[in-house]
Amino acid sequence: MAKMKFQLDSEQKPTKTGLGMYSKEEEYVSFSEPCDCSGQVEIWLNHVLDSMRATVRHEMTEGVTAYEEKPREQWLFDYPAQVALTCTQIWWTTEVGIAFARLEEGYENAMKEYYKKQVTQLNTLITMLIGQLSKGDRQKIMTICTIDVHARDVVAKMIAQKVCRYTTRHYAFSALSFTVS
């Protein structure tokens, strides 16, 4: 957080109620609930921390849940950069787990089909970078592209090495049951 937005009174002067936060890249995120910034600084700064955590927790939960409701290239504009990046990684983990489950069920091309999906998603993002974007959206998409390239390479390596089973199931989780605590 680089700065905060405060509620204005009738004379357009800031009150002691925080409404949201700005990143150093100027991305604005509204707090899920207004934040009381009155009283001793050590008290209200803890309120700000609590508001930040609650907001990110709420946005992450919403982002993971909404991921499949619209195309990814549209979905990512609905969420702050940190949330979009984290949710795409959660869904990558989930989708790789699904591909492994399909492999174990005997569907031999499951990982190759997921790889093709990754390439399509990456090409879509690259095409978006050529177009008109705000500075913040461009940075968000470039960051997701960087992570997506790595994720694609991991899947390609698993295909090349003929990995066909996911043996560390205790580390797996499903985005459909994802909660942030």
Question: Which short descriptors sum up this protein?
Answer:
single chain, about 180 residues, alpha+beta, three-stranded antiparallel sheet, 5 helices, 3 strands, disordered C terminus
Structure, described:
This protein has 181 residues and is of the alpha+beta class. 56% of the residues lie in helices and 13% in strands. Helix 1 crosses helix 3, helix 3 packs antiparallel against helix 4 and helix 4 packs antiparallel against helix 5. The longest helix has 26 residues. The C terminus is likely disordered.
**How big a fraction of the residues is strand?**
5-15%
The major pleated sheet works out as: 3 strands, antiparallel
| Cα shape | elongated
Distance between the termini: 21 Å
Task: List unreliable stretches of 5+ residues.
Answer: 168-181
* Strand order, sheet with most strands: 1-2-3
* Residues in helices, as a percent range: 55-70%
Backbone CA Rg: 20 Å
The secondary-structure class comes to alpha+beta
Mean pLDDT: 89
H/E element sequence? EEEHHHHH
The total of beta strands comes to 3
Q: Helical stretch count?
A: 5
